[in-house]
Task: structure prediction
Amino acid sequence: MGITRWGLKKSPWVYHVNTGACNNCDIEVLDLLTPRFDVERFGIVLVGTPRHADALLVSGICTRQCRPRLQEVYRQAAKPCVVFVIGACACTGGIFHNAYHRWGRVDDAIREVDPDAIIAYIPGCPPKPEAMALGVFKALAML
Amino acid sequence: MLVFVLATAGTVLLGLLTKWVDRKVTARIQWRVGPPWYQTIADVCKLLGKETVVPETARKWTYLLAPVIGFGGATLAAAVLWGANLSSRGFLGDLIVVVYLLLLPAIAIIVGGIASGSPVTQLGASREMKLAFAYELPFVLALVTVILKAGGTFTLGGPEGIIAHQAQSGMVIGSVSGIIAFVVSILCAQAKLGLVPFDIAEAETEIMAGPFTEYSGAPLALFYLMKAVLIATLPIPLITLFWGGICGGWGILWAVLEYVLIVVLFVLIRNTNPRLRIDQALKFFWFGLTPVSVLAVVLAVKGY
Result:
């Protein structure tokens, strides 16, 4: 368990899920993966499929249409997989918390599927890339 | 027995470090810092700790055995090459065996992609099939050039092999046809490794992860190791065929420099080119590189 846990901390592969965001948080997530912030130093690589992911970067309010799809993506991600809830909308609903098309909170949707999912919250509208990086490192340090 | 285990572990480690060199040089070209030296080892350790998911629509045993076959083919090719180079233990026709064994990783990717049972993986597998058709032809023609220059022998090691022939009458790369064949085989090796501009099968922005989409855990770790062994192994036949081997030619120190040069060439071509479409890649290999390698064969027959 020791060496695979060390591997998980040193090489988290991320997959980005947009559950109905205004794309601001998505742009900041993509900013984070550009050469300026260089997260490949820490082993963070953007992968193209949830099956390869160790961390799901979820942004957006969880719309009614997106909720079963988000749950399916979480189910298909190979465990152990942590979830990073990015942005004010994903954490609590943000300014859209009374919207008609919103189902609920992202972490409630995920805990429906897996009650002991590891979820980390990175608030902000949008969170600065530095804040996202800090959140990722704090979560990895607690693993 | 211990020698075989150590040789396999050594090749795998060399492959992981070569993959790291690729990522680090890429990072430097993009003015970044890049991952630390143990990054690829951490990737493999992490993948071994993830669960292995077998999709419902997949053929279970083919799906699980495909990475094993690919890894086995790549390490066997490495074994034959190390044997021919370091201990001149060649057998008749071992060049042909190496060519076939180096095709096994591509076949494993295709079989694994089709056995996964998902439309995205099947698309990636069909792309890999077309790419394999494309790059095998000029690669074999470049090898024919080397065989002709070395007097018509198919053997790598041994007393009348290609290495021994180069020790007597000069390296193949010292001739015009040798240089042309070397350039052709570098480009074919770039396609074999699945590096940009030919990473059509695993085009992340287009088809998720291509044939590897449904893999996770230990099978994905085996595919990762297979690609690592392949990137460590592919410069070795290039050095053997064109530069006179690791011990022959100019000596072991120069062989290390040649290895680094070939890997850096792969990385530079990778970082300065966009990805090709599959029809552009087919046209490039069949109508671009094949006439060039036919020219190299004709020059070799004429004696240049």
User: Anything to note?
Assistant: The interface with chain A takes residues 23, 27, 30-36, 38-39, 42-53, 204-205, 207-209, 212-217, 220 of chain B (CB under 8 Å).
